[in-house]
């Protein structure tokens, strides 16, 4: 019971992060299950089955708050489902010994990507035009495949790519990615069901993650408007990097003084990313404040009238009813 309560808390925190950042539910949950000794395929299968419920709740909440662009959802969800089904089939067919470092490597890479991505400001100045299907389709396919084989990755691949495009509001990027993930999670679960059978799903774990995620989903859809993505992304990226580095170090048989040195270097990189994220957040807020306080050119008269001329015209009007030509 204590373990299930911990997993429910993890599901709640993971959904808060995912709903506020547009990523990291699968990364956080899968990382914990791997540390607990769950086989990679079973961990990914259980997380994706739980995500069917959490992403449905998140999608409804984001829709109610106006955070969803349905055009983007329809064009990214189907390719994502195809990629996720293929990834689940592949992961189900390889052994645990091979899958563990593979999955940890994907999670480590995605965590490092989060550190780099959120250590600097996101570009949102490129506007104009709509996102095309030839961009959304391949993006969904790759993101879905990585998500299923790595136990997470839909958000870390899809969300930054859409944010960098600068053609969507950040809150709509997050809401659309979360909503489309419902279809991706369902396709991945079908793939795992075919490859592993029903015994491949850890149902008590699924239930605990699902309950925590359902509680957090409405709150996360509201928090997306106020939580600074810079700090949240850098923080969760460091946790994922350090946690999955453990599996990679073990698989590489690094012993002796090398192991603590690696951890120290990774921790130093995490700290540096957090410092850069704080600086980027301050610069962004300062720039927005300056832009908001600057007078708009549209509200400033192009040319002020001459006071003497205005007075003379007024006097003529008072005396004759018509202004004297000047």
Low-confidence stretches: 302-326
Assembly type: single chain
What would you call the shape? globular
Helical amount: over 70%
Q: Biggest sheet: strands, sense, closure?
A: none
| Measured distance between first and last alpha carbons | 93 Å
Structural class: mainly alpha
Figure out the total of helices: 12
**Average pLDDT over all residues:** 76
- Any idea what the radius of gyration is? 26 Å
Order of helices and strands: HHHHHHHHHHHH
Number of strands: 0
Report the portion of residues in β strands. under 5%
Give a description of the structure.
With 326 residues, this protein is mostly helical. It is 78% helix and 0% strand. The chain is built from 12 helices and no strands. Helix 1 packs antiparallel against helix 2, helix 6 (133-150) runs antiparallel to helix 7 (154-165) and helix 7 (154-165) packs antiparallel against helix 8 (170-196). The N and C termini lie far apart (93 Å). The model is unreliable at 302-326 (pLDDT under 50).
């Amino acid at each position: 019971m204590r373990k299930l309560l911990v997993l429910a808390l993890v599901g709640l925190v993971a959904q808060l992060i995912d709903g506020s950042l547009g990523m990291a539910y699968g990364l956080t949950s899968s990382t914990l299950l791997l540390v607990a000794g769950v086989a990679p395929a079973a961990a990914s299968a259980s997380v994706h089955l739980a995500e069917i419920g959490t992403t449905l709740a998140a999608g409804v909440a984001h829709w109610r708050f106006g955070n969803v662009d349905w055009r983007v959802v329809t064009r990214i969800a189907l390719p994502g489902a195809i990629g996720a089904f293929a990834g689940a089939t592949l992961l189900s067919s390889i052994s645990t010994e091979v899958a563990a470092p593979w999955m940890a490597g994907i999670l480590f890479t995605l965590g490092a990507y989060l550190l780099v991505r959120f250590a600097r400001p996101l570009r949102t100045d490129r506007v104009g035009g709509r996102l095309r299907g030839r961009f959304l389709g391949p993006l969904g396919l790759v993101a879905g495949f990585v998500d299923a084989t790595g136990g997470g990755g839909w958000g870390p691949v899809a969300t930054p790519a859409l944010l960098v495009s600068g053609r969507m509001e950040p809150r709509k990027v997050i809401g659309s990615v979360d909503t489309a993930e419902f279809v991706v999670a369902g396709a991945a679960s079908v793939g795992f069901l075919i490859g592993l059978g029903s015994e491949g799903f850890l149902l008590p774990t699924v239930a605990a993650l699902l309950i925590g995620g359902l509680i957090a989903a409405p709150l996360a859809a509201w928090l997306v408007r106020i939580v600074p993505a810079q700090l949240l992304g850098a923080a969760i990226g460091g946790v994922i990097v350090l946690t999955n580095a453990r599996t990679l170090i073990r698989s590489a048989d690094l012993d002796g003084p090398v192991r603590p040195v690696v951890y120290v270097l990774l921790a130093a990189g995490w700290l540096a990313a957090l410092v850069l994220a704080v600086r980027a957040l301050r610069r962004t807020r300062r720039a927005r404040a300056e832009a908001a306080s600057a007078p708009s050119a549209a509200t400033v008269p192009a040319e002020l009238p001459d006071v003497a001329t205005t007075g003379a015209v007024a006097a003529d009007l008072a005396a004759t009813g018509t202004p004297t030509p000047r």
